[in-house]
Amino acid sequence: MQRLRRLLGGILAILALAGMVAPANASTFIRAGLEDLVAGNEAVVVGEVVDTKSYWNSDGSFILTDVRIAPREVLKGKVDKRNLTVTVMGGTIGDLTTVIVGGAQLIRGNSYVLFLNHDDLPGAPGVRTVRHHSQGVFDVVLAKDGLRAVSQANRHPLLPDSKGISEALGGAQGVPLDSFRNEIRGLAARPQGSSREVK
């Protein structure tokens, strides 16, 4: 009975979150451009996942996972470089796994560009998390031309933004990591209220 209660609570939390973020489709989000991601998050880091720990939230209704990150670079904001923990929804405890469709996938040993903000998750208020889900996580991958940042949102459908663009930022090939970092730094340094076309 306890397991059923937790499972139902988790399903309801997912449906509630999906309804708030994307009423048109539970697994579809409106496409966010780089300007949106930089402006809408307090910190942007390049880092490697060093550890993960899944657990039940405060009322035992939903699985959360704390992800410990070793930051290599801070592109925006301030973070504790020795103890950066990001909390994401979903995870595995024993034989029970909660999967968030369109959620951030952070794997131990892999490197990412992460767009981070403090937000409320089910039973965990004010934690540092990936607010934009898969759109706020870019896998750092080695390609023929060097390191590239590839959005995890390529794995999920996106609704068009105000410019009619529905492709994930950078597309399936991603963008060169160096230019991506420079673009983020430039956007983070701009005065609030100024605007520029960013794809």
What do you see in this structure?
It is a single chain. With 199 residues, this protein is α+β, with helices and mostly antiparallel strands. It has one domain. It contains three helices and twelve strands, in the order αβαβββββββββββα. It has helices at residues 2-21, 34-39, 177-189, and strands at residues 29-30, 43-56, 63-76, 84-89, 91-93, 96-98, 111-121, 124-129, 137-143, 146-151, 158-159, 175-176. The strands form three sheets. Strands 2, 3, 4, 7, 8, 9, 10 and 12 form an eight-stranded antiparallel beta sheet that branches. The protein has a two-stranded parallel ribbon with strand order 1-11. 33% of the residues are buried.
* E-strand count: 12
Q: Structural class of the helix and strand makeup?
A: alpha+beta
Mean pLDDT: 87
Helix content: 10-25%
What general outline do the C-alpha atoms trace? globular
Listing every helix as H and every strand as E from the N terminus to the C terminus, the arrangement reads: HEHEEEEEEEEEEEH
Beta-strand proportion:
35-45%
Q: What low-confidence regions span 5 or more consecutive residues with pLDDT below 50? A: 12-26
